[in-house]
Amino acid sequence: MKTHAKGSARLRLKERRRHRRHALICPVTLFGPDEEMLVTSGAGNLSDGGVYLSVPADAAPAVGARVDLTFCVPRPDEASAGRTGRLEVFAGSARVLRQDDTGDQAFRGVAMRFQRPMQLPPA
């Protein structure tokens, strides 16, 4: 359970996530319904259930929109002694759940839930 401080009161929030989050430092490309490329982003977090990205505000997909996406996850290579040796490519569809203010008017935070869990291999 997470605890958040608000003023002098402490709020206890139940963790509702089903999937562990991982920092995402790799390209993610979003495609709209007509297969046009909307944006490529490279910062956020990723889980089997969804992804959170910071995207240019003028390219942020609308809440409720369905987007297709591709992304690469760095994977260790046996020959690289545990260092990143290759990129594994994943593709899927997601629904935009919300947009967040990032503190920079040029960017929006976008939370998306995959239509089907990705079943990503462990990091």
What does this 3D model show about the protein?
This protein is 0% helix and 56% strand. The model is unreliable at 1-10 (pLDDT under 50). The chain has one domain: Beta Barrel (Thrombin, subunit H). The chain has no helices and ten strands. Strand 1 (2-6) and strand 2 (9-13) form a beta hairpin. The strands form two sheets. The protein has an eight-stranded antiparallel sheet, with no helix packed on it. It has 123 residues and is mainly beta. It has strands at residues 2-6, 9-13, 22-24, 28-31, 37-41, 44-46, 50-56, 66-76, 84-101, 107-114.
- Global outline: globular
For the record, give the distance between the C-alpha atoms at the N and C termini, rounded to a whole number: 24 Å
What is the H/E order?
A: EEEEEEEEEE
CATH topology-level name: Thrombin, subunit H
What CATH first level would be assigned? Mainly Beta
Structural class: mainly beta
- Tell me the count of domains: 1
Main sheet characteristics: 8 strands, antiparallel
- Under the CATH scheme, the architecture is Beta Barrel
Low-confidence stretches: 1-10
The tally of beta strands, per DSSP, is 10
Q: Residue-averaged pLDDT, rounded?
A: 78
**Widest sheet: strand ordering:** 3-6-7-10-9-8-4-5
Q: Treating each run of at least 4 consecutive H or I residues as one helix, how many helices?
A: 0
Helix content: under 10%
Fourth-level CATH superfamily: predicted glycosyltransferase like domains
DSSP strand content: over 45%
Radius of gyration: 16 Å
